[in-house]
Amino acid sequence: MSVIDMFVGLQTGLSADQDIREEIRKVVQSLEQTAREILILLQGVHQEAGIKDIPTKCVKAREHFNTVKVHLASLQMKFPSEQYYKYHEQWRFVLQRLVFLASFLVYLESETLVTREAVSQILGIEFEREKGFHLDIEDYLSGVLNLASELSRLAVNSVTAGDYTRPIRISTFINELDFGFRLLNLKNDSLRKRYDGLKYDVKKIEEVVYDLSIRGLMKDQPTLTAEK
Amino acid sequence: MSNKEGPGSFKKHKHGIFQSSQRKDEKFSVDSSSAIVMAFQSFQHELDARHDKYERLVKLGRDITIESKRTIFLLHRVTSENNMDEVLAEAESKLSAVRQKIKQVAQELVGEDMYQFHRAFTPGLQEYVEAVTFQHFITSRMLFSISEINKQLLFEDLQMPPTTEKAHTLGIQVTPVDYLLGVADLTGELMRLCISSVGNGDMDTPFELSQFLRNIFDGFSYIGNTGPYEISRKLFALKQSLSKVENACYTLKVRGSEIPKHMLADLFSAKSEIIEHDDVIS
Q1: Any idea what the CATH number is for the domain that residue B117 is in?
Q2: Is the pTM above the cut of 0.90?
Q3: Which residues are within 8 A (CB) of B131 and not within 5 positions of it... i.e. 6 or more apart?
Q4: ipTM of the assembly?
Q5: Are residues B162 and B182 in the same domain?
Q6: Domain containing B82: what range?
Q7: Helices marked H in B163-228
Q8: A190 touches chain B (CB under 8 A)
Q9: Ligand-binding site membership of B230 (annotated)
Q10: Can you tell me whether residue B1 is helix, strand or coil?
Q11: Residue A184 is nearest to which of B47, B176, B218, comparing CB atoms?
Q12: pLDDT, tens digit, for every residue of B40-87?
């Protein structure tokens, strides 16, 4: 086989690869679009009016996740499933964002940390790598770390809205999360970098709790939080 | 690493603050068996296992790189027909040792997604491609194709118990990009070979090499920018190597007829030293 023939063969492979990447990019773009919509919806809880009807927002967000499922299903059709990590970088960011949104949703609903299985279910993907398109553990953890910073914001805003008990529940939750992350031996990578930001969220929430306790506001049972 | 030294002392400290400020003693003592903590314990195992595997692969990858580099240096010692067989035999034994290392990489990757750990050993594979194509060029003056390389990297799997009925071959396949990057490095070696062969009084090799390099250059031009970014970067170095070889051939052609044969090598090596000064250092 002549040298040029070999290169022609290789080039065919490379451009096929590029085609796949382009297809993936298209789906990822629509995923990002949906993710933004969910984000806007859920961010409503930071407003005084929004914090009162969290359940309605959660129901709406759940509906949006059906769109996500459809997009993710079509993403899986774009490439052979055993080459997940070959193209991983392309959907990594959006998947982390979706994990964050799903975990935020679950937190608002039940004030618990979403499990990996549950996120996979919400997103309509597999839990284990062997079975196909799955959720990488590092992506899951990154998404959860985003949840922490969102909750520190929510703690502040719920005080403004007159809900004085929520920050305390958030504080318990974040502390448990912090405890969990301390168990991990992280490498010096992007996940580690994000984890390093967690302490600021913890600090922020502790400050809020401190402010409330020093003023004796924690014992008040505001009429707002009838839900818990 | 703060999270390594931390867990014991610092956590208890935090714990204390938390308890006293919020009076949730009983709630937090349940903590170590809570769902979140349990989940994170399993994450710890999973991440540790993954990082360990990655580190093992990086180490294997480095060994592959070093041994391949040594093989290349060895192959540069082919100076005449006399020692050729001897050197080639030694190179072959070195390369088969490298293949054993690659087999270990393959064993690490059984049941894994190869691309997940690809970054750990891709420099090693590229270096191996460079070595094996160089060896093949010296013996047959042809470019070793990717399918032939991959054929050599299939191993009989003797360690796996014969539980599954499938034929036990395991191996790593060199990806097209690994192959192309390895071949691009090969051209640098060929340039060195060209210059040194003139020093040995071999007047044919430079012309063969320039032809071969032109073919490879054409091939890379055909690929252009369809490949990843690294390939286009290597293309620049390839251009330089090619022009060095072409200039060498030019000098041979023009000056060859004017200067007595015994002085040619001196003239040429003096000139080429200036050209490839920076390469000699590396």
Answers
A1: 1.20.58.190
A2: no
A3: B68, B69, B71, B72, B75, B95, B98
A4: 0.85
A5: no
A6: 53-174
A7: 176-199, 205-223
A8: no
A9: no
A10: coil
A11: B47
A12: 999 999 999 999 999 999 999 999 999 999 999 999 988 767 788 889
